[in-house]
């Protein structure tokens, strides 16, 4: 039972089936015979249609023929969908109509006195998840049924209080989400810079000499001679043990470990020094990470140590980020995919000059300082959100004096209702792109005095004269008004046409300044837009886009 000791007296204790009509989806079978490409078909809503971190389902990848409706369940916009298997209990809000299979439970409000945002947060909370988890059935895969959800007892405040709680949690969640997106952007921007400096290693457009990977450094497999590898006497000592999962989940640097070797385990293995690039060759193919401590690893991981003056581990790490999909696709497969040491050693890769590699390494090292701060801020915002959420649903927050604004009472605008702002400034000697979206954070909105100075520089550019370097002009006129989508290189090229070459910072310094300007945008205006990135598989490049 959910704790009720601190809940305000206005709150009511109600079962979920007092609040919602709860039904299960269904599926016409065999489903392949009902799938269709006909635009008049019905949306077929799958769990994969829910985007990570989103509370809304806005579109589907598949449709079914209308005659299948007799064996499924039709649901409409505003309905809650609750996953009832696998990642059970995860709620989503429908913004479309469609049909659902039996992997969903549909919850339709019985009253207009229920706030969609409030119940989204409530159903997403650990408080409710713990209750649902205790009622789920199944040993390996837990499943929810209608009865379990129907009997769940929740505390519900009056509608205005629901809206106040939802408004506060929306803001806190936006801060957490935008800090995560800012972190993701900074990490992915490094991939974009890699492409600018080295080109796509798959197609090698810059024409670097290609050599076998073995020419860049030494590659050797880890050692684990004893079988079985997880024998109790091998584990539990003082020697760090890295597994393929530790590498796959690490990112650039491997900073922690989950297992250790005993003296017995250490004697049948090998210790690798800090700075070794670990490359997985089984299960998760060609994932990489750089050791930040001395460690052992089994023969499912290869250690790479670069030759001084030829290469560095950071270049090779980012290189594998582009080659990983190719290696995995072509990996021999028995019980599980794997590649061998010979394949790695003979892999031909571009070898740019070491001075360019070292410049990239320096840029990455500087950026990691920003990433460290971002990760710390993300952890703090996550802890704050969790604490705020728990207190809100226990009735411990006094929000009676919180004035609800339009955001808490009006629906979110559709994409075609969002106004299109100004264009970025014209680059000298070239036309600007088509319609653009402004980054709607106060960090990218100049004050009146700043705007006055910017207009002086605008006038100079209108006369066809480049201007001296101005961080404010770069921030407000270039970065803050980029057309969607854009690449890091687009901004750098535009800067080169706007500013005098003698005053323009070097490329590495300019990228650092750009990262600094975008870092922490979510702290400034919770409802502001952020940049996101995706890899364009057709063009083989990182694309920067503005979040709506």
TrEMBL record:
Residues 10-181, 205-359 form the Type I restriction modification DNA specificity domain. The keyword Lipoprotein does not apply. Pfam families: Methylase_S (PF01420). InterPro entries: Restrct_endonuc_typeI_TRD, Restrct_endonuc_typeI_TRD_sf, Type-I_RS_S_subunit. It comes from the Bacteria. GO terms for molecular function: DNA binding. Residues 408-435 are annotated as: Disordered. Keywords: DNA-binding, Restriction system. GO terms for biological process: DNA restriction-modification system. The keyword Flavoprotein does not apply. PANTHER family: TYPE I RESTRICTION ENZYME MJAVIII SPECIFICITY SUBUNIT (PTHR30408:SF12), TYPE-1 RESTRICTION ENZYME ECOKI SPECIFICITY PROTEIN (PTHR30408). Belongs to the type-I restriction system S methylase family. This is Type I restriction enzyme, S subunit. It comes from Prosthecobacter debontii.
